[in-house]
Design brief:
The complex is a heterodimer of chains A (85) and B (332).
Chain A (H helix, E strand, L loop, with lengths): L5 E3 L3 E2 H4 L6 H32 L14 H9 L2 H4 L1
Antiparallel strand pairs in A: 1-2
Chain B lengths: L1 H30 L8 H11 L8 H13 L1 H10 L1 H23 L3 H30 L18 H28 L3 H32 L2 H4 L5 H18 L6 H23 L2 E3 L3 E2 H4 L3 H30 L7
Helix pairs in contact in B: 1-2, 1-3, 1-6, 1-7, 1-11, 1-13, 3-4, 5-6, 6-7, 7-8, 7-11, 8-10, 10-11
The chains are: A mainly alpha (85), B mainly alpha (332).
Chain lengths: 85, 332
């Protein structure tokens, strides 16, 4: 597998395996742009989390993939529970 | 053997539509929940309802892709080289949706949360739309057997727009029913009311759209009607309408678990109807599953792998959904 110029060694050339649909460069450029934006955003978000953590004010927000701040949600949901009843 | 492989592939399509659909639909209600203040509580419920399972549902998409290119390679090539624009946009939606959701959780300022939240919510709408448009392009016979069909007309056509619209509306309906059940489990009556009203509205729109859909399909994809339609198809559509209606009528009283089952049945029956209507063809009228199938040894190994995966993955996904429905996944 994978050694150029083969996609499948001895069976399929990369040049024959490439899509016939066109617009390849456009899609490639779009992919690069999107992942750059998401990558930069990741760094920005991580840095802002780091700042908050250093300032010691990170207790009330959630951490992706971390335990949910269940209490926070209960307060958010429960606040005007009375009105709904 | 190609029929078994087709059934296994289609089971994945239905599972993605139902589980992924509920997930996307939650994003739709997030988008339409209103301003930061008014929408705060519905959004909190949505966040906590989908938090534990978000993105787990995309395993079904990966499953469908792998099944499609392994078991039916010529059809996969034809679909990819024709419908690459809507498929690319759907993938874009999935990437942005995931990042938007994760980033929003980690940010505190309202302005930042508004941007990431808008990205999450709007991509929750465009992704199912484009998947529906892809389904419409396939069903209406716009994907040529050899691929390379019209890059725009293959998904900018009446059947695709109908498919896209139906995907968005049924996802919203599923999510609204699920969230109603969720609000009841958590005993938040005003949010239960909030999502019940939305479930009814979505169901009305879905009903109207399917009625209009009959005429659209008659005009745009007549081959779906010219074929001999067995008793299966009308029965399935009847089942869909009946369970959809039952879910609405019981929305106020029934056990949340029953509600979820009814809503899922309503959506799944429509999809199975599409599959039954098209069988034994994969691409409208011109490529059958048998002709598109990979050689028998490949199909055999795919089915074996599927069996093994089912044994390993279904119990763990079932446990995930079960724990989530029981509200056991929150810390505390």
């Amino acid at each position: 597998m994978g050694r150029q110029p083969w996609t499948i060694h001895g069976l399929l050339l990369t040049r024959d395996a490439v899509t016939t649909s066109g617009n390849l460069w456009l899609f490639f450029a779009a992919t690069v742009v999107i992942y750059t934006v998401v990558g930069v955003a990741t760094v920005v978000v991580l840095r802002s989390m780091q700042r908050r953590w250093r300032a010691g004010s990170d207790e009330d927000i959630g951490v992706p993939y971390g335990p949910d701040p269940y209490e926070a949600m209960l307060t958010a949901l429960g606040e005007d529970k009375g009105k709904g009843k | 053997m190609s029929s078994q492989a087709a059934a296994v592939l289609f089971a994945g399509v239905v599972a993605y539509a139902v589980f992924g659909g509920a997930d996307f639909g939650a994003g739709f209600w997030d988008l339409t929940a209103g301003g930061a203040e008014r929408g705060r509580r519905p959004r909190a419920l949505i966040d906590h309802a989908i938090g534990p399972v978000w993105e787990a549902n995309h395993v079904w998409l990966i499953y469908c892709l792998v099944m499609a290119w392994t078991a039916f390679p010529p059809a996969f090539v034809a679909i990819m080289t024709t419908l690459y624009i809507p498929l690319g946009l759907a993938a874009l939606g999935i990437v942005l949706r995931g990042s938007g959701f994760a980033f929003r959780k980690a940010l505190v300022q309202t302005s930042e949360r508004r941007i990431t939240g808008a990205v999450f919510a709007s991509s929750s709408v465009i992704t199912p739309f484009f998947f529906g448009a892809v389904a419409g392009g396939i069903a209406s016979g716009r994907v040529p057997r050899g691929g390379g069909g019209d890059a725009l007309e293959s998904w900018l056509n009446p059947t695709s727009l109908l498919g896209g619209g139906m995907a968005v509306v049924t996802a919203a309906y599923l999510a609204a029913v699920f969230l109603t059940a969720e609000a009841r489990t958590r005993k938040v009556p005003d949010l239960e009311d909030h999502f019940r009203r939305r479930a009814i509205a979505a169901a009305v729109v879905a009903g109207a759209l399917s009625a209009a859909g009959i005429f659209i399909l008659r005009a745009d994809a007549p081959h779906l009607f010219s074929r001999r339609v067995g008793p299966g198809l009308p029965l399935l559509l009847l089942l869909s309408g009946a369970s959809g209606l039952a879910a609405l009528l019981l929305l106020r009283r029934a056990d949340p678990r029953l509600l979820r089952v009814l809503a899922v049945a309503a959506v799944a029956a429509v999809l199975v109807g599409w599959g039954v209507g098209q069988y034994p063809n994969l691409l409208a009228t011109h490529l059958s599953f048998a002709k598109a199938a990979a050689p028998d040894p490949t199909l055999r190994s795919v089915l074996v792998v599927f069996g093994a995966a089912a044994l390993l993955i279904v119990p763990s996904l079932a446990l995930l959904y079960f724990l989530q429905q029981r509200g056991r996944l929150e810390g505390g």
